[in-house]
Specification:
β4 and β5 form a beta hairpin. It is built from no helices and 6 strands. By secondary structure, the chain is mainly β. The radius of gyration is 12 Å and the shape is globular.
């Protein structure tokens, strides 16, 4: 899977080296290399990705913990939550 466009908060999930106001050329999204992404949800500053193995990744601005991860750091990470 590839991403490009507006990316100041890392919402394209391209990694910290590609934090930029705009990514003009398509770039491979690293965590999708071994799995198929079956669903994507996007907003202005965040994105969520569901992979075929059931894992969920979130990317972008983490203000108010909108990405489902601890801390306020922006970027990409695996969303891990135990369902009981």
């Amino acid at each position: 899977m590839f991403g490009w466009g507006v990316n100041p908060h890392g919402q394209l999930a391209l990694g910290p080296s590609l934090l930029a106001s705009f990514v003009s050329a398509p770039q491979r999204i690293p965590f999708c290399n071994d799995n198929l992404c079956i669903q994507v949800a996007c907003s202005l500053t965040q994105s969520g990705f569901l992979l075929d193995d059931g894992s969920v990744y979130s990317a972008g601005h983490n203000e108010y913990l909108k990405l489902g991860r601890e801390g306020k750091a922006s970027g990409t990470g695996k969303f891990e939550r135990t369902l009981e």
